[in-house]
Write the structure tokens for this entry.
Amino acid sequence: MRILIISDIHANIESLEAIKEKYDYLLCLGDLVDYGPSPRECIDFVKKNVHAIVRGNHDNAVAFRTDCKCSEAYKLMSVKTRELMWNILGEEEINYLSSLPLNRVLELGGTKFFLTHATPADNLFKYLPPDSPDYVWQKEIEGVDADFVLLGHTHVSMIKKIDKTIIINPGSVGQSKDIPAKASYAIWNDGDVEIKRVTYNINKTIEKILSTPLDINIKSSLVTVLEHGYLNYQL
């Protein structure tokens, strides 16, 4: 059995469509919207192809018009692109985002998977870096009955074993921070896990961002993050 695991698409359809893996199941860990220029296309792709999905903090913010509680460095970008999301998306798409569960438990081929966006203890907001101590992760997954815990949110990929549980973060499809300018995802293949990356037409995504009515400073920040993985990049 082959499972494709994706997260944090952030309205970047070019990066999403660049993933050409064959799979039996496609699992998505949330954040379909904000930051990118193509939320409608990404939602449509997910609705047609994903077998199980959970709600991310940005999905939650767009659906319920509330704070995404992201970092201060990204807050203005998220606020301004959220306004763009509301102008692009229709009622049906907003309702779809609001209907997504905060977590899911799946059993596939005798293996149990727990899906959430941030952490099992805080499904939407807690930012837990991959290098957090094992005892912190152990506390986070306490009480979770699953062989694999799947989460996203940090935009940084990770495979970590805590006791008998393996935690997988596939990284970000649409706004990767550890390997920028590439779509990051994970493949689960009969218990073996691999983080993979693929290049995509980032110039097309950038062109779309630059054609939006967003303020030029917001556009510049969005492009910088896409190209370099973080803000204030300097050569």
